Amino acid sequence: MKMEAAYEDLYDNPATLTESEMSWFETICRQCTEAVELEEDIPIYSMNHSRLKGKSKEAYGIIWKAEDQTYITIDTYFIHECYESVFHNAWNVTFETLEHVIAHEFAHLFYWRHGKRHTEKTEELYARIKNNMEESR
Q1: Which of 4, 25, 28, 84 is 20 to 30 A off residue 43, Cα-Cα?
Q2: What's the angle, vertex CA 110, arms to CA 55 and CA 57, rounded to 5?
Q3: Which tens digits make up the pLDDT trace of 76-115?
Q4: Which residues contact residue 20 at a Cβ distance below 8 angstroms, ignoring those fewer than 6 apart?
Q5: Residue/partner pairs of 35-38 with CB below 8 Å, 24 or more apart
Q6: Chain segment 3-47, per-residue pLDDT in tens
Q7: Burial of 41 (0-12, 13-18, 19+ CB in 10 A)
């Protein structure tokens, strides 16, 4: 799988993530992966989720599990929204961070179904990510 940069804006106009947005996304993904120290390498890709079917088209992040491959995708428009919030003080309409969504998807490796244990694992992984980022400043 390769990274996607295309998305539709709020008015359904085609748009593309900038090089700065993609670079920032890749940096955040690397920092999150390093912080949680998983036993296996789980790649994280950008993907335009709006082209998916059903509830998946609204997801900020999705973990995909196949027979021999597991990977995470993060919606391209969500990446753009997060970037704008962090670097241009745009209003975060989702009230969610990229790091927290990645932690949420990683938590599915431990607890597939949403519930108390999944929520606790998400928060544990998110705390590790935040601590690692603060230490690396």
Answers
A1: 84
A2: 15
A3: 999 999 999 999 988 877 789 999 999 999 999 999 999 9
A4: 83
A5: 35/125, 35/128, 35/129, 35/131, 35/132, 35/133, 36/103, 36/106, 36/125, 36/128, 36/129, 38/106, 38/109
A6: 999 999 989 999 999 999 999 999 999 999 999 999 889 999 999
A7: exposed
Residue 133's CB is within 10 A of a number of other CB atoms, namely: 15
Paired tokens of 3: 């990274």
Q: Longest C-alpha distance within the chain, in Å?
A: 42
Query: 76-88 and 98-107 helices cross at what angle (nearest 10)?
Result: 140
Across 34-85, the runs of DSSP E, i.e. the strands, are 44-47, 61-65, 70-75
For residue 71, the model assigns a pLDDT of 97
Q: Residue 11 is encoded by which pair of tokens?
A: 């008015």
Q: Are 87 and 43 in contact (CB under 8 A)?
A: no
The predicted-structure confidence for 44-66, as pLDDT tens digits, reads as follows 999 999 999 999 999 999 999 98
